[in-house]
Design a protein that fits this description.
Layout lengths: L2 E3 L5 H8 L3 H7 L1 E5 L1 H9 L6 E4 L7 H12 L3 E5 L1 H8 L7 E6 L15 E6 L4 H13 L5 E4 L8 H7 L8 E4 L1 H8 L6 E4 L5 E2 L9 E5 L8 H4 L4 E4 L11 H12 L1
Parallel strand pairs: 1-4, 3-4, 6-7, 6-11, 7-8, 9-11, 9-12, 10-12
Antiparallel strand pairs: 2-5, 3-5
Helix pairs in contact: 1-5, 3-4, 6-7, 6-10
Length: 261
Amino acid sequence: MSRAVTSLTNPTVKSVRALHLRKERDASGLFVAEGLKIVTEAVELGHAPRILMYGKDAEGHPLLKRAIQATQAARGEVIEVTHEILAKVSRRDNPQAVVAVFAQGYTSLTELKPQSAPCFVALHRVRDPGNLGTIIRTADAAGCGAVILVGECCDPYSVEAVRATMGSIFAVPIVKASEAEFAGWRSNWPGSVVGTLLTATVDHRQATYAKPAMVLMGNEQQGLTPEMAALCDVNVKIPMRGRADSLNLSVATGIMIYAAT
């Protein structure tokens, strides 16, 4: 059964709001997803909410009914809340009518099956959650096998990153690995590992991408470090025809993903 909550000081409301902090997400292993579309994507992929909050605007929607059923079947908590509570837990003036809490899920490097997809993505020290979320969404659209986060990266389960994935956070395996772990695992990679460098001489459209391809991208400020570039079979460049001398990381990664697939 669902229950109604109207107090901003309710313990559950406070715990959901606290998940905006990385230390709380790390400690609990939980994260917040906003919007009926994302929650529906999660449910369809077998991820039931631990906590499901909804407002009057969503009441009676058939997709919400499915989400409520999935939550209750998994013994999660279903709560009808006010607009003020939705704004509080999402930190937005115009919040979505549905907010849910899910368990985080990471895959290990050893669980990946290289032959399961034509392309995989590895990101070294990516800093911007919006970029990361967009890359996860693009990887999902292109049928990539996983997104591997190498070294100290931003949190894929932050509210900003999850928003940018538009639900793909539930569809694409996410892996975390240290530089040393990734380098050791990469030594047995059966296809091409391709990186981007401003100093590269090979056009990304002319490179050979032996399947399965691994697209390895550096962070927003520095690009690939020399150590990461050395792990690549080939480093390529994306030609710049205008005055801009570089691309946004998510855009560049999207170009490389589709070049490799």
